[in-house]
Amino acid sequence: MISTSSYDALMERREEILRQATGLDYGSFSDGPLVVDYERLMAATGYSPEDVRRIQRATGVGATPFLELRNVTRMVRSVSPPGYGARVFLKEEAANPSGSFKDRRASMSAHHAAKLGYAGIVAATSGNYGAAIASQAAMHGLRAIVIQETYDSAMRGQPEILEKARKCEALGAEVLQTTVGPELFFVLLSVLQETGFFNASLYTPFSVQGIETLGEEIVEDTRAATGRDPAVVLATHAGGGMCTGVGRGLRRAGATDAQLVAVSVDLRGLHMASDGDFNRKSFTTGHTGFSLPFTSWPDRVDVPRNAARSLRYIDRFVTVTQGSVFYATELLAQAEGLERGPAGNTSLAAALVLARELPRDAVLVVTETEYTGAGKTPWAQLSFAREMGVDVLAGPPSAEVPGERIALPSSLEQLAVSEVDLDRVRRSYVNAARRVVQRPLDARERSFLREDARLEADPEAEAA
Amino acid sequence: MEWVEIEWTILEPDQRAGTVPPDTAQVPYVGRARGVTSGGPQIGDEAEIVTSSGRRLRGRVVTRAPGYTHSFGAPLPAWLEMREHIRTSVLEA
What we know:
By secondary structure, chain A is α/β, with parallel strands linked by helices. Chain A has helices at 4-12, 14-22, 38-43, 49-58, 70-78, 102-116, 129-140, 159-170, 184-195, 205-226, 241-252, 288-296, 322-336, 346-354, 378-387, 422-437, 443-452, 459-463, and strands at 30-31, 35-36, 66-68, 87-91, 120-124, 143-151, 174-179, 198-199, 232-236, 259-265, 316-320, 363-366, 391-394, 405-408, 418-419. In chain A, the strands form 4 sheets. In chain A, strands 3-4-12-9-10-11-15 form a 7-stranded mixed β-sheet, with helices on both faces. Chain A has a 4-stranded parallel β-sheet with strand order 7-6-5-8, sandwiched between helices. Chain A has a two-stranded antiparallel sheet with strand order 1-2. In chain A, helix 7 packs parallel to helix 8 (159-170) and helix 13 (322-336) packs across helix 14 (346-354). Chain A starts with a helix and ends with a helix. Chain B is α+β, with helices and mostly antiparallel strands. Chain B is built from 2 helices and 4 strands, in the order E-H-E-E-E-H. In chain B, strands 2-1-4-3 form a 4-stranded antiparallel β-sheet, with no helix packed on it. Chain B starts with a strand and ends with a helix. The interface between A and B is large, with 68 and 48 residues. Strand 7 (174-179) of chain A pairs antiparallel with strand 2 (29-37) of chain B.
């Protein structure tokens, strides 16, 4: 246990600790609490797009297979209007060394930490990012610590999170597990202060820059396979890194007409810091508990300014139910012979719906898959949900109530997405900005908000 | 030399962040980690471990020789219904 004074003292030193742990002087990219010079922040890594590719290829990251889901496409067409049902492609990100696209994020932090002479890297994550950090640290001869929110107060852990801890430990990392709570940030600060390791936050420019290659490869792969650009690209939205990095990559590769759709698992109504709600969800990331607060105030992260600013890039935002993602997971396994982790199929669940809206010659791309194993399967997660008092029933997505009932669809036609009103998200961001600034927004702030939230009009008019 | 899991209290309930919801505010914030120790501590004993990153941590031993017990789970009736539909549509397609 630590004393209250040491807690306060550590929180007061946060800026200094984070500067030492990232090598970035965030103050130099910020102009007050709101405005950030975003492109300068992204350029502060010092790595060009070519550098990023070279660095990633050196550890086997990226250049993953690009697969056409022919059977899924055929099945989607059977429930689409005549002439509709896009070709569905998928980026096999499970082929990265640690089994998910998170290797792209971890690769740049690990490379940079090794180059600067840090002895190790630290990340606060309950997701696949931990395994990516552990894997990349091993490749670069660095030590690794993964801080993972794992248990409720009865020390029950979700099978998916327990599996990720196992994988981190298998790859040589220390895993520091905690019970539920936002104090994870305090633990991160204390570990950074004690060790002097690099803070491989999910939200630094290193992390986001590492994802840009995924967007670029999607455009190159689609052009090579079909001779055209993707019409729609679906990316899972948790903290916004994947949408931001993929969006930047799509633009760099010139796919300016591709629509980027953010997809989250709908967990609305569950409190993410609640001990009682913690184990009543079957998805630990890629859900609305992250995506809604992060889009309406991106800077709520473990570094002073968030490099993942997804409102700049996403064109549409939809949610899917937990049951729909389990459906997509089973379908991918049985129709395409690809058994992959449920959480990585969040975008695929939405693709099964959105492909119906597109003509047959259009190309729809799902940005990821993830590895699977014990704990990361529909059976493991549904069994655990039931142990936690969540009903698991057959039924359409509309029958699902987060934390109370998971509805497993019994036909492809039943699958549906829910639209998130992006204009409303943008207005929430403007309102959050007003609360932080606590005075009328000045001209620079209004101009920044127009750019950062992609507002069509001046935020003074938007908020009215 | 022995592989153990230890637990320690990071924050008591009255030290928790002001923003946590009421159910979380009532319980301590607890940490766990695994590592190597010596001297054969029993469950409940205070012990110091060396973690995989080389750090030394102290806490109460909660498990000796901890393994992994998460599994592939078991099928539920609603899953079987979904699976039957998927099998049929895959075979028809």
